[in-house]
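G., the chain you wanted modeled:
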Amino acid sequence: MFPVQDINPTRRLPLVTYGLILVNVLVFLWEITMSEAQLQQVFIDLAVVPANLARDGFFAPESILDILRSMFMHGGWDHIFGNMLYLFLFGDNIEDRFGPILYLVLYFVSGFAATVAQYLIDPISTIPNIGASGAIAGVLGSYLILFPGIKVRGIVGLGRIGTMQEWPAWMVLGLWFVLQLFSGFASLGTQAQYGGGVAFFAHIGGFIAGVVITFILMTIIPQPPAEQRRQIAYQRHS
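Predicted structure as tokens:
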């Protein structure tokens, strides 16, 4: 399914989600002003390069900056469009549930965990790892735990024809995660890079981190049962 809407209204304007999308878009607009050679050098100098992490360590100031900067860089129009679409659809509800500060904690810690997961697969790679995918995967993992029964509306392809259907979030996001697992293990032995491959283990690591962090945050901010959250959302929608 290609999701286009989740039927899950929020109680407040998701300013942090909109801000993250804005920063990602602005960085991408800066990227497209460069030549291909200039852009590749920027990725090497400012983004995560696993071999550099192996040399400097994850908690060196420059490594932390590289990880943060990488979360706002993208390798093409389809890359940023897909990431921002998922962040727009699912991020607002996580921000709404946990508040802006804890939402940012979940987002950036998931992004950090995604970098660790991809690094462990190929720690000597000299190919820059870029994209918000790992952090957004954490948002998806959180959404799966908080809103498993919420309906997600999207396009399901049937040959050359697409139909609009509604699936529960657990099915949409669960299938997405299973696809990452299969693709990730199928990609072992190949170099993971945007354009020549996708960093699937970053997605897997970010998603799992989002799930774990959500369970931790739910002990801090108790949540109604999943079915009650779904009913509240649909009452607010009607």
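The two ends are 25 Å apart (CA to CA).

Shout if anything looks off.
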